[in-house]
Amino acid sequence: MIKLHHLNKSRSKRIIWLLEELEVDYEIVAYQRNSDTFLAPDELKNVHQLGKSPVIEDDGLIVTESGAITDYLITKYGNGKFAPQAGTADYIDYQQWLHFAESSAILPLLLKMFVQKDGAKTQFLEGYADAETAKVISYFDDRLADKRYLVGDTLTGADFMMSFIVEIVKNSGQLGHFKNLVKYDEQLHSHEKFHTTEELEQKYG
Hints:
The chain has helices spanning 12-22, 66-77, 89-100, 106-118, 125-143, 157-171, 179-189, 192-204; strands at 2-7, 26-31, 55-58, 61-64. It is α+β, with helices and mostly antiparallel strands. The chain is 52% helix and 10% strand. Strand 3 (55-58) and strand 4 form a beta hairpin. Helix 1 (12-22) packs across helix 8. A four-stranded mixed beta sheet has the order 2-1-3-4, covered by helices on one side. It has eight helices and four strands.
């Protein structure tokens, strides 16, 4: 059975959704952030040296990093679902979104969070984070024009990965500025197991 080490309010939410859609047997091992520092507890370091989440255990393997976990699970358990055929143009686009979520997209969003949390006046960082966030999210929004999903016309790993980015934008109160993202968010919420995932996150959060 797959074991997911899940940290509340973290990227592992999208892995729960993927596992639910794959309809595989899995269990959640839940961890809670420190209420003062918002950091993961030291217990996660017993699973992986970095002490971060998500981490899965499967058949003796420990797999970290959301994109790698998503790719691994879909390749092993997807039975042809949730990823385009390798070697196609859609597959290249799919791979780019898997990596975009944890590289170009997440960095400016995290910088904005850190600047706001710190509260100190910055000489450069705040303006840079604002400009890069606007650029990246506008690109994301533009790529969704006249589309229900990011790749093809079906749910793929790209959508599982980018759902976390949508959630950050939504929680910041900025989603309404991006009309295609609003529709995309509604499309993601049309999946029954998306709601199951939110219920599970609340249960373990």
